[in-house]
Amino acid sequence: MTPRPTSESPAAAARHAGPEDRAARRADLLAAAAGLLLVVAAAAIGTVIERANGSLHVNWPPLYASWFPHVGPGTPAALAVAVLVVGYGPPLAARLPWRGLLLACWAAALAWTWSLALIDGWQTGIARRLTTEYEYLTVIRRFDDLGPALRGFTGHILNNAPDHWPAHVAGHPPAAVLTFVGLDRIGLGGGAWAGVWCITVGASAAAAVLVALRALTDEPLARRAAPFLVLAPAAVWVGTSADGYFAAVAAWSLALLALAATRRTGGGRWSAPVPAAAALGSGLLLGLTCYLSYGLTLIVLPAAAVLLLARNARPVPLLVAGAATVAVAFTLAGFDWWEGYRLLVERYYQGAAGVRPYAYWVWGNLACAVLITGPATVAGVRRALAAAPAALRRLRPSAGPPPGPAGRLTVLVLAALLAVLIADLSGMSKAETERIWLPFAWWLLAACALLPGAHRRPWLAAQAVLALLLNHLLYTGW
Questions:
Q1: CA distance 384 to 410
Q2: What is the distance in angstroms between the CA of the first residue and the CA of the last residue of the chain?
Q3: Are 113 and 235 within 8 A, CB to CB?
Q4: Per-residue pLDDT band at 104 (split at 50, 70, 90)
């Protein structure tokens, strides 16, 4: 039997910590404090701007939310899940069999996301979330005749077009709305089933990230990340928007790619059906990801990091074939992705984005990123940035041995961070990034595995407290 990973007790680790360790922990706290100051500045300055001219178009800057202190039926469950994961999550993550850990991680993430959503009640928190005037379910009947609907999809994107699509339908390629059309066709129509779908699939992203981390780094590091993936503040938005579902599709695409790139058969040859199927499956999900959200084309940056870390390009042909299959299918059905994106940019500036100030949102968005990933992630990303020069140098074949597990995790986190920064600087993500950036947030959360074990529970508690405060003090609507 393979021995399970064990770790030094927190008290012993604290006693044995040297000056270098203590300095690193102080730097972690300073980074978290800087993240808090960024959020406070974004809230204070944003409130002044919004009250002065209303140009931000959000009620509680920098979040698309309203001040609404409340409790609900999910409150006791959310508190219980937080206490249990903080108290028992780290040791269980270290001891459970791997497959048991994956299932436990998904189940705990489901419990956390469901309980947070139910703080707003069944109707407000789940059943009505995707039925507002901006959402996908309002246009289901317009897809009764699927062929003409897809061929004419781009003709309804602009605000001045006849029967223009609502904001979220216009803002995404048709795979997003077709998901809910498909649910309706199999008898799972309506807001309740749509909410159940998004939460159930969205929560699986935590397990997908674990699969990828184990393949690319090592099992102990993946196990250290597990409790943080469960108690992610991002769960607040996984439970309120379809973007949680998009994030899970992207996460499983990268997880399958990691398996395809790192799995070998006897003799080290890449020829077994499992890696080939994983590569093709990754490509199909990657293609679907790009037809769920235009901005998720940036997921190719973490995908490139996966191949770079594995030092294996053999999955690329099947990866491309899978993605191309999705693209060809939509193109033959009559949807032109590039035309859709061009019109989306025009529609984007016809709405609130035309007046939202870039000078505020280019840094206000980063405050949103702090809120969806939490203070522990800020500290973990600080450690990744500190380790980045050494990790990147060791990626060069001439630099000797490749980076170790922590170095490989650092590179993966840097790729996700680069995707976020590109999205931010593009100006196509002014506000609402707390949901739009969910697919990248999961990979930033993985940086929490770099935090020392002696202080893992306090960081976990900070993550949980942030999520609970957000969901109890604000109403996050779309």
A1: 5
A2: 50
A3: yes
A4: very high
